[in-house]
Amino acid sequence: MSGHSKWSSIKRQKGANDVKRGAIFTKMGREIAVAARQGGGDPDANFRLRLAIEKARAANMPLDTIKRAIDKATGGGEAEQFEEIVYEGYGPGGVAVLVEAATDNRNRTAADVRSVFSKAGGQLAGSGAVAWQFEPRGLITVARNGTSADDVALAAIDAGAEDVDTDADPLEIFTSPTEIEAVRRALEGAGFRVESAESTMIARQSVELDPAKARQNLRLVELLEDLDDVQRVTANFDIPEEVFAEIAG
Which listed CATH number (1.10.10.200, 2.40.10.10, 1.10.3720.10, 3.40.50.261) goes with 4-74? Predict the structure, then answer.
């Protein structure tokens, strides 16, 4: 999981900016709709929907907006169907990039994603080109707030977690996708404050870039994430310390 905490820090900053623009509500609404259409509108029986709702509530998404997204997806409102599509491509320097989208217009989204790759010095690739370089994982974050990282790690591993980044802030616990809920409940039962729990993609190996190439790839990721249809972007490069300091500062 080397370098993942840097990505998480950037995602949190980006998330705060998205909230200001209102863009994150659009993305979360689509995630809720896709989850509800695939597994039903009952969050108690649909784990993916429950995670999507919790993430939306953490971002202060109104309850009526959440309910409307579920109703539309399950037939309780005007029809609005989104399909999930994964695009694969290369960023500057051969970086592998995975783009997960939820769209109601496949042609529009493909054109938008292709345009961004071209504009940022990358290239859209065919299915299977880079997906093998990533794996699905569960990611749970726990607030430090004076909490013992070792105690969190022990409780998480005992509950079935695969890895814990005790240097990250908040602490990051990695699980298999099927163990997210069990580990989360165990941590909350032990008295730890879970900030988030979600399914994500993790690069199997990361590549090191010079600062200039890293900035180019960060720009590519940012432009892709700014597309309304794009839910998540994952890339397999490490962020050099000096570039991370520029962003964090």
Answer: 1.10.10.200
